[in-house]
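User: Design a sequence. Structure:
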């Protein structure tokens, strides 16, 4: 099939936000704990078996006061930890005589008879080690114990490296460094005693020295490299449904996510595991700064998740959540003369962070939301008039800087949205979108479907100002959501083909979007979708062939001469092809030939493919 497309450089149809394409972070699929947040110890404060906040347990489920239930297994009081001994020993969880009453859980290990006893931690599905240093600290005390050994061992029990620590009768925070001589995929961490008595562990943490930017207790380097490859214009945090919680006690309370990591109680994450909150308010802001991205802060407006028997706050509760939002905004961007700006400085970052957007609520709707939205909008806008405030849905008779739209679809849905965002209206943030059904865990078919929607958004950039794909991360051992952009295990990472689409769109953002006469048809067997733009000395063409037949497209730049062109093509033999931990680049964008002749550019699009063509001006 041949297709002729005319692009008119004299007809500008939109000026996109230069930071249009961002990322959306939510603690789902162990995205942070066991992933981006490079902690290697699972259940480091021994609280993982705690019931979700303000719930009761009965019959294998926890229940909120509003009647929502979640599966919950309380049979193991110390997930992640096992006892290894050669005599008589015991290990249990206790809350007696805590170091910090806000974080009372401790691991209590006693040796009664025998040579030794060890509390062993397997990390998040194993601890992968490289030949490098690992550092951390333990907080412990002993009764009848004067020394303890900490270290790393192979899965069979042979010690790799270890250190001896002195133990006192009062809790002491003891830092350590362990030097690993060799690579092993499935190591374990241990704390061992050789004396008869009792050891109380309050907190244990372990990080690789090779974190991103070598920052202590920082981010996993390879996952940060994948994020930098996307050149995100903004980052939305702390998430979607986790912002709301299954009840308001379980929602994210940002003030509990800052300060020393050993004093953060964490919270039950509504994706069925407990979050350490090591990735807390300061770390989220640092993440945005490291990526040179603007911040979008999502605030709870006094409603728990409406898909989970929502608990709306009363009048006093609304005031609490409103003040909580204002305090959080001040922590992010207030100067050091403010209460929470000074607190941020005390936490190690005197300079304000770059906050640009605040979203009021997450996926909230209806009259309960409408009244809260207006109160939050008025209060935040009065104090921070330059912030862009985002509504979850259109709110009658209320000002809206932007409204947030979400789409999760089958492959044919995005190509058929040919009339989306036509006409005038409230500016749009497409906060969550993905072709995530009938595409496995994310294949080429889904990527090209996503590309057709992104082409549509770029062509309507006067309405769609910013957008972020979702979800962002998935640990391969804990897939809660079917399709996720970046997937990983303890030592490997890959992006699904949609990652390549996201990367190319962001890398080649135009300054203006130009009119083109390519019109896609709903339900056609083969369809070409095109967006064309201009920047500096180049024209940028992005196009997707969503169909079973190859298309050779000839692009004519009206009244303009072409010097040369180069192309990047995302294609594969089958639309079901994808990437994996074993073959992370099986479907990747590669350089492709572009024919320049008589002021026109020709390019061949295989079935189900996406390309970026860079046309150099004569």
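Assistant: Done.
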């Amino acid at each position: 099939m041949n297709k002729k497309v005319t692009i008119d450089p004299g007809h500008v149809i939109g000026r996109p936000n230069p930071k249009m394409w961002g990322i959306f972070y939510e603690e789902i699929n162990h995205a942070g704990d066991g992933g981006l947040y490079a902690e290697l110890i699972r259940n480091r404060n021994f609280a993982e078996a705690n019931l979700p906040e303000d719930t009761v347990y009965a019959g294998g489920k926890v229940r909120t006061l509003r009647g929502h239930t979640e599966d919950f297994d309380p049979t193991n009081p110390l997930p992640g930890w096992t006892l290894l001994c050669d005599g008589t020993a015991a290990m249990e969880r206790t809350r007696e005589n805590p170091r910090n009453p806000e974080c009372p859980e401790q691991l209590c290990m006693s040796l009664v008879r025998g040579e030794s006893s060890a509390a062993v931690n397997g990390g998040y599905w194993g601890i992968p080690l490289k030949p490098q240093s690992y550092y951390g600290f333990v907080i412990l005390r002993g009764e009848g114990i004067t020394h303890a050994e900490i270290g790393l061992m192979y899965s069979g029990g042979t010690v790799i490296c270890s250190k001896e620590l002195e133990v006192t009768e009062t809790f002491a925070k003891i830092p350590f460094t362990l030097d690993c001589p060799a690579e092993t995929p499935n190591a374990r961490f241990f704390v061992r005693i050789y004396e008869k008595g009792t050891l109380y562990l309050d907190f244990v943490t372990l990080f690789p020295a090779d974190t991103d930017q070598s920052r202590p207790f920082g981010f996993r380097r390879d996952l940060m490299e994948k994020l930098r490859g996307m050149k995100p214009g903004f980052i939305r945090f702390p998430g979607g449904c986790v912002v709301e919680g299954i009840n308001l006690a379980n929602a994210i309370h940002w003030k509990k996510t800052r300060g020393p990591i050993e004093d953060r109680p964490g919270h039950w994450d509504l994706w069925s595991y407990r979050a350490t909150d090591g990735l807390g308010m300061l770390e989220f802001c640092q993440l945005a700064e490291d990526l040179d991205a603007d911040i979008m802060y999502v605030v709870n407006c006094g409603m728990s998740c409406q898909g989970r028997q929502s608990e709306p706050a009363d009048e006093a509760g609304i005031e609490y959540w409103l003040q909580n939002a204002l305090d959080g905004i001040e922590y992010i961007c207030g100067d050091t003369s403010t209460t929470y700006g000074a607190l941020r400085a005390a936490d190690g970052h005197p300079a304000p962070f770059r906050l640009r957007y605040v979203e009021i609520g997450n996926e909230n709707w209806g009259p309960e939301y409408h009244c809260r939205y207006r109160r939050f909008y008025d209060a935040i806008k009065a104090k921070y008039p330059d912030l862009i405030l985002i509504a979850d849905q259109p709110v009658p008779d209320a000002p809206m800087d932007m409204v947030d739209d979400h789409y999760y679809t089958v492959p044919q849905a995005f190509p058929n949205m040919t009339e989306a965002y036509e006409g005038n209206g409230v500016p749009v943030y497409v906060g969550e979108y993905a072709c995530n059904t009938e595409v496995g865990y994310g294949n080429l078919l889904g990527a090209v479907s996503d590309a057709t929607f992104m082409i549509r958004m770029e062509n309507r950039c006067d309405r769609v100002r910013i957008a972020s794909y979702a979800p962002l991360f998935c640990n391969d051992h804990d897939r809660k959501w079917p399709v996720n952009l970046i997937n990983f295990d303890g030592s490997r990472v890959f992006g699904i083909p949609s990652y390549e689409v996201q990367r190319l769109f962001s890398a080649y953002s135009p300054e203006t979007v130009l009119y083109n006469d390519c019109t896609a048809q709903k339900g056609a067997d083969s369809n070409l979708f095109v967006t064309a733009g201009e920047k500096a000395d180049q024209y940028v063409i992005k196009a997707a062939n969503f169909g079973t037949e190859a298309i050779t497209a000839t692009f004519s730049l009206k009244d303009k001469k072409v010097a040369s062109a180069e192309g990047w093509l995302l294609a594969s033999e089958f639309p079901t092809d994808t990437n994996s931990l074993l073959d992370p680049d099986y479907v990747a964008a590669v350089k492709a030939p572009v024919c320049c002749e008589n002021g026109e550019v020709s390019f061949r699009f295989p079935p189900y493919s996406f390309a970026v063509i860079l046309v150099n001006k004569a």
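The first strand starts at residue 2 and ends at 14. The domain at 55-208 is CATH 2.60.120.260 (Jelly Rolls).
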